[in-house]
Amino acid sequence: MSPPVIPFDQGDALLDWLGLTDALAAGHSLPKAEIGDTFLYRDPDTLLSRAAWIDGLGMAVKTATIFPENADKPTINGGVSLYSDSDGTLDAIIDFHLVTKWKTAGDSLLAALHLAPENPQRILIVGAGTVAASVRAAFGAGFPNAAFSIWNRTPERASEFAKAHPDVTVEPDLEAAAHNADIIIGCTMATTPWLCGDWLRQGQHVNLIGAYRPDMREVDDTTLLRSRIYVDSFDTTVGHIGEVKIPLEAGTIAREHLLADYYDLPSFKPATDDITLFKNGGGAHLDLMTSRYILDRWRAR
Q1: What predicted TM-score, i.e. pTM, was given to this entire model?
Q2: Which residue range forms the structural domain that includes residue 147?
Q3: Separation of alpha carbons 151 and 158, rounded Å
Q4: How many domains in the chain?
């Protein structure tokens, strides 16, 4: 039998967010992943491949083609090849966008389920791009009693998002919205921090997705100094992502400020009045765990 090719729509219909967080937690109970990235360039285009191998789970290579000058089709395309851990044969080819959607939001949801205040009432999403929609779906599954709102640097984009998601309200004032929220989720491409630590109050959870380059940050130094900081992976955040890299190199925070990653998930247990901060760094090992979950649901359909 040929390995399946799992397209976005058919795969997406089979998945659920809490099931994915269980799969991510289980994946981190296995031996630590080996990961590696490779880049090839032909100006202005890029071929990025991210590989991971987890003993007991298998191997995955996630390849992205980035063609910024595409006019009539997406600028980012690709696929994920999933391989058997026992004999190295191809288990499946999975749509790139399916894996990315579920991995990105599921990664942040897993942290929030452990770090956010119990029964949060108000969740603020900052940034109205593609990730915001999957975040709304994921956190809605994780916190079904919460009310959602959104703030965006361009108010028109926030209004468009709210029209597509009628249960989400638009926030006109970021400072007031951030202070009132129980969970603040950053989904921006910011290189200059938009969240000020002086706005925060005890017991809040800040969950950062947007910054992924060494020059990118979503929060200021005060936010970091007031927070108990957790990451999904030390290997993919320290030295790689500006949210962590810049303040570490400046001496604003010390390495000891990063309390745990997912390979020590039992340590994600803050006190009730702590401000907690989670940095979502992604990584090929999370693509592998997500791809294996997708294939398991595909086979069980």
Answers
A1: 0.95
A2: 104-282
A3: 6
A4: 2
